[in-house]
Design brief:
There is one protein chain. The protein has 9 helices and no strands. It has one domain. By secondary structure, it is mainly alpha-helical.
């Protein structure tokens, strides 16, 4: 892969991860928790959000992750409900990002891009940006700790069930690793990815809504 091809997918990933984490911190700050701001994480500088191992994985496997923005729920007026909004903020920012790039994609389709060579790489990067933002959003909607979906689910559950769910949170990372491992084993045996099978219909639907096309067929 040449340098241009590398940048075409790395830049959209960095952008998607940055707005995801920034939005968590911004909403937490608006709900009276200054933890992210004090930690220097209330910024759109991607370097501040990079996780060392996640960055290495990004270069090696074309999949990475950022450092979670620190949040102290004890600063919230209503910790459980406010954490729901903080949890929604990251995926919500990615969906809005996908919408924005979807609009740019529709504008590009009014231009004969194939006839303007310097626009072709930007066009490809716009497609990646729509898809990467949607993938990050809907993967994080899976209600398994530490993914954002777990915070959202906990916020909407009745209090007694939320307390029970808090116990599961202690083992969330192991559950997530287990889910990914099982999904990989199923994919290796059957060619069907469990996780992708769950989130891909949402990605296809929203890519069609935002761009008028199922962009997964273009990559």
């Amino acid at each position: 892969m040449n340098a241009i091809g590398f940048l075409l997918w790395v830049l959209p990933i960095l952008f998607a991860l940055t707005i995801h984490e920034y939005s968590h911190g911004w909403v937490a700050y608006k709900l009276k928790d200054p933890t992210a701001k004090l930690a220097g994480r209330l910024t759109l500088n991607p370097i501040k959000h990079l996780d060392p191992i996640g960055t290495i994985a990004l270069f090696l496997f074309h999949f990475g992750w950022a450092k979670p923005v620190p949040v102290n729920p004890y600063n919230f007026t209503n910790p459980r409900k406010d954490m729901l909004w903080v949890g929604l903020a990251g995926p919500g920012a990615n969906i809005l990002g996908a919408l924005g790039f979807g609009i740019v994609y529709r504008i590009f389709n009014l231009i004969p891009v194939e006839e303007i060579r310097f626009l072709q790489p930007i066009y490809i990067m716009v497609i990646y940006s729509v898809l990467i933002n949607l993938i990050l959003a809907f993967f994080n909607f899976i209600p398994i700790p530490p993914l954002d979906g777990s915070k959202i689910l906990k916020g909407i559950l009745p209090a007694n069930y939320a307390s029970w769910y808090s116990i599961i949170e202690q083992f969330g990372s192991f559950l997530l690793i287990g889910l990914i491992f099982v999904s990989l084993m199923i994919e290796r045996a059957t060619g069907i990815s469990l996780i992708w099978g769950v989130i891909s219909p949402f990605i296809r639907f929203f890519s069609w809504v935002f761009t008028g096309k199922d962009l997964l067929h273009l990559i």
